[in-house]
Amino acid sequence: MFSFRKLHAQCSFFLLKPCQNPRLQSTKSATKFARKATLKEAQAALLEYLHSTRSLNFLDADNMCRNSPSFIQDLLAKTHSHTPHVNTKRCISRYLRYHPINEFEPFFESAGLSPSEYAPLLPPHMIYLNDDVLLMENHQTLCNFGVPRTKMGRVFKLAPQVFRYKPGILISKLQEYEKLGVSRKTLINVVASNPCILVGGVDFDFVKVVEMLKSVIGKDCDWIGEHLLINKDCCNWRVMFHVLILLSRVFNEKQLGDLITRNPGLIFEESGSCVLSLIGFLLKFGLSVNRVCVMLQEFPEIRVVKFLSNLRLCFLFLTEIEMEASEIGRILQSHCLVLGSFTIKRTITLLTNLNVGKKRMCRVVKDDPLVMERWALGRRIEPLVNSYLEFESRALKKEFMLSLGYEENSKAMNESIKLFRGRGAELQERLEFIVNAGLDYEVVCKMIRESPRILSQTTDRINMKIESLVNEGYAMSDLASFPSFLSYSAQRVKLRFSMYNWLKKHGAAEAGLALSTIIACSDKAFEKMYVNRHPSGLQVWRDLKAQISSMA
């Protein structure tokens, strides 16, 4: 009998477990094993060449073979010994017999440098390591002292002059530090991460830093090397020592020890200059020394340089939304720990996404500064809900528009309400101002329906444009026939009237032109129709433009 259950089980096997094909898994395992075997044979061939043929120290040769994967891969590619059914070791040995390699390449790579980092360090006229006697002697001195071969890369990168010392100088520098009380383990870690202490004379600031850290932490400073790796360049031990002195004046030994143990970046990031900048930034905004101390004790798990950058971005944001300096200081004083813990979005992005203006943004932040945390990079932003004042203003606008003769909720009303700028009470005030200037109420209502934008200006601007209109000899009835006149900028109005008066004076334009004819056309059309009527018209036009622009 046909069984659906059996068929379902067979289908599930093929559909749900395609990767459990025993043959496929066997092929993958075999390929992986073959790659490992090829790599081991290549390393063995290179080790035999470097140690037996080139007479390099066995430990150096072994380190070069084990820790230079890029060089090994290039060697395999050149000899084609990575292909199946090829004796990799014999193939590479034959290649090395007739093709000498640049031994500095695997040497630098095994020290922890990438090909792009060690390229500038390669000697131009040398390929054999034993030919550079000073390099190998100083390298061996560091190895014998305890610096791991694989961590020698930063010494080559930050302090290459160390490998040019004459015999005995390098070991004497190391012993000098030991005599001053720096333990060998601490010295090994510091040299591997920040080798500049070996350049020049004894760095007594480094010794002072180690002594001070020992006294406040109560144990040896073997751990400082790993924290120095965050610095791309050599440490400035003098700055670090001054930072420790500064902190020791406001914290007792136990507090300072706990602070450094919990957040070593305070003194190690950029040699402590970051925390100095942070303290200065906070003091500038009115934080007391005690408040700064509390802030450092509660410092979040974030790099100091990033924390300071976040604080500055928040300050820039508050400045760009035109918040008062006193309010900015108050917010930074009370919420600096939170504001430094996230990266705020750009101001223009926030204004656009929140669909608000700078004034409302200021009110929102003043009411609840922690709202800025919701505007961090990577977080989705929702437009702010309209406040009661905005609802009230919109209701007044709607009431005002109904009084103008608009039909409630009509398309014309919804389109016009978007063009009005200002609160509802301000719109009524502007309408009454135009009426008081000498026009009938019904006429002004009709003007507004035809050109709603005329009420998007303050009464001062409206007054200035009406005065310029009257001064040019036009009546208020001319404004009724061309209400858009009030929407144009004061500069445009002044420029057109000035040019028109000049043309009339020189007989190039007739008197009594309509307002719309003078103002509404584009500059290009105005030049073509009127300015070019007089030979000097274009030059006068340009001069007037420059004069009026400079006065703006």
Fold and architecture overview:
This protein is mainly α and 552 residues long. It has helices spanning 4-16, 22-53, 58-66, 69-79, 88-98, 104-110, 115-118, 133-145, 153-158, 169-179, 184-193, 204-217, 224-228, 237-250, 253-262, 265-268, 273-284, 289-297, 304-320, 325-339, 347-354, 358-367, 388-404, 411-419, 424-436, 441-450, 459-471, 476-481, 490-505, 515-519, 523-529, 537-551. Residues 1-19 have low confidence and may be disordered. The chain is elongated, with a radius of gyration of 40 Å. Keywords: Transcription, Transcription regulation, Transcription termination, Transit peptide. It comes from Vigna mungo (Black gram).
Describe the secondary structure blueprint for this structure.
Elements: H1 4-16, H2 22-53, H3 58-66, H4 69-79, H5 88-98, H6 104-110, H7 115-118, H8 133-145, H9 153-158, H10 169-179, H11 184-193, H12 204-217, H13 224-228, H14 237-250, H15 253-262, H16 265-268, H17 273-284, H18 289-297, H19 304-320, H20 325-339, H21 347-354, H22 358-367, H23 388-404, H24 411-419, H25 424-436, H26 441-450, H27 459-471, H28 476-481, H29 490-505, H30 515-519, H31 523-529, H32 537-551
What does this entry show, briefly?
The chain is 64% helix and 0% strand.
Note the gap between the termini. 97 Å
| Average pLDDT | 83
Derived from helix and strand composition plus strand pairing, the structural class reads mainly alpha
Low-confidence stretches: 1-19
Strand content: under 5%
Report the radius of gyration as a whole number of Å. 40 Å
> How many strand segments?
0
Keywords: Transcription, Transcription regulation, Transcription termination, Transit peptide
Organism: Vigna mungo
Pfam families: mTERF (PF02536)
Family: Belongs to the mTERF family.
